[in-house]
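Supplementary Methods. Inverse-folding protocol.

Structures were first reduced to a discrete structure-token string of length 405. This string, shown here, constituted the complete conditioning input.
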């Protein structure tokens, strides 16, 4: 378990610390900055800019690993939602898995019909999929989710990893997952597979949107739902993780409409942010996020899905579809409609890293507000009883509104 930092009351910072506590934290961070010497000429080396266990940009310098190439090709797959049918789990899971693998082949311009040859287009270095491309989405209860959640690693990551290794690329996708250290929890997980076929990064959903679903709430566990224990186990840096890869710093989030969270990921050094909300408004969010934070952003969502059980065909197919956006907020590529489609764009990642300029965030001006603000919905809602249904989750969320820590 990670050691607790006795010089910082982290819970106070998260739930509304006094300005005096904030001033102490700021002075400690400043002292750490002055005592740390950077050995990097560009944007830093591992561990050079961590303050209180959190790796974050300081004076424009942030943690990276060397790039293997100057430019990368990025593809975003706007796929249909085909939910697993628990009445025939094996058959429908195989159907969905086969479809996802075919879409990966198509994104790499290497379909089976061409004998696995790339007869059209270029190699793709990063393939981005949405939140639930394999399992789909249904209002499953906890018992049902236990039946469809993936082990990581498991057969599904092995199959996708085989494609990543075959093509020498990274593949990002979301899923419901199980973790052995979190029995009975179902975690909304973003997964990044690497060119070696192995899992590079597992990134928990940071939080669910609370108060949006009337009397109900989502039952997948997020970082915010178990914040204290999560930090004890993994440390503060892992609450908003960045995968530092040889094609750039990649962050993936299925949190929708959360601009300050996206900004924090950018300040931590994300160079490419994947917004993967199924049923969300990813294109408009991606353009705003890229422009505000001056980073490359992929907004990848689901296509019109006529075969998704219990939902109308166009459920979640909104705004401008799927986009890959440059740091000025200009779409490099976008889908023309909400049918199943794949878009690809070329990103000059090395040049971006060398010339990147962070937005000037006046932290001294804003931090007292953040430190004093108290949110309606408190963290750690799932530290006790886990809700079995959406209705139980809604009751639990409302019971914690305005409670004191």
């Amino acid at each position: 378990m990670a050691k607790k930092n006795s010089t910082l009351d982290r819970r106070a910072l998260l739930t509304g610390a006094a300005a005096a506590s904030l001033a102490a934290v700021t002075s400690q961070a400043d002292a750490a900055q002055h005592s740390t010497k950077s050995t990097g000429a560009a944007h830093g080396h591992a561990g050079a800019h961590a303050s209180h266990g959190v790796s974050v940009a300081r004076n424009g310098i942030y943690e990276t690993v060397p790039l293997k190439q100057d430019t990368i090709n990025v593809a975003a797959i706007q796929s249909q939602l085909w939910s697993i049918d628990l009445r025939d789990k094996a058959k429908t899971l195989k159907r969905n898995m086969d479809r996802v693998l075919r879409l990966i082949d198509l994104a790499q311009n290497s379909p089976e019909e061409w004998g696995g040859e790339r007869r059209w287009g270029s190699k793709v270095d990063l393939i981005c999929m949405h939140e639930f491309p394999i399992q789909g989405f249904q209002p499953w209860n906890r018992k049902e989710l236990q039946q469809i959640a993936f082990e990581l690693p498991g057969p599904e990551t092995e199959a996708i990893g085989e494609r990543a290794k075959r093509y020498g690329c990274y593949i990002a996708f979301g899923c419901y997952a199980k973790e052995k250290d979190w029995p009975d929890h179902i975690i909304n997980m973003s997964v990044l597979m690497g060119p070696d076929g192995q899992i590079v990064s597992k990134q928990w959903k940071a939080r669910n949107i609370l108060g949006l679903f009337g009397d109900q709430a989502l039952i997948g566990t997020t970082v915010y739902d178990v914040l204290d224990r999560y930090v004890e186990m993994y440390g503060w840096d892992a609450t908003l993780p960045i995968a530092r890869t040889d094609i750039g710093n990649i962050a993936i989030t299925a949190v929708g409409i959360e601009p300050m969270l996206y900004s924090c990921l950018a300040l931590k050094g994300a160079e490419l942010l994947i917004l993967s909300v199924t049923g969300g408004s990813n294109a408009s969010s991606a353009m705003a996020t890229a422009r505000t934070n001056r980073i490359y952003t992929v907004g990848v969502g689901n296509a019109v899905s006529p075969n998704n059980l219990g939902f109308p065909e166009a459920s979640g197919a909104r705004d401008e579809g799927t986009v890959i956006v440059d740091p000025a907020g200009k779409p490099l590529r976008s889908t023309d409609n909400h049918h199943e489609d794949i878009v690809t764009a070329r990103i000059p990642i090395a040049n971006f890293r060398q010339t990147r300029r962070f937005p000037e965030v006046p932290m001294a001006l804003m931090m007292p507000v953040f430190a004093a603000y108290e949110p309606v919905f408190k963290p750690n809602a799932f530290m006790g009883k886990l809700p079995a249904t959406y209705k139980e989750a809604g009751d639990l969320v409302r019971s914690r509104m305005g409670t004191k820590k």
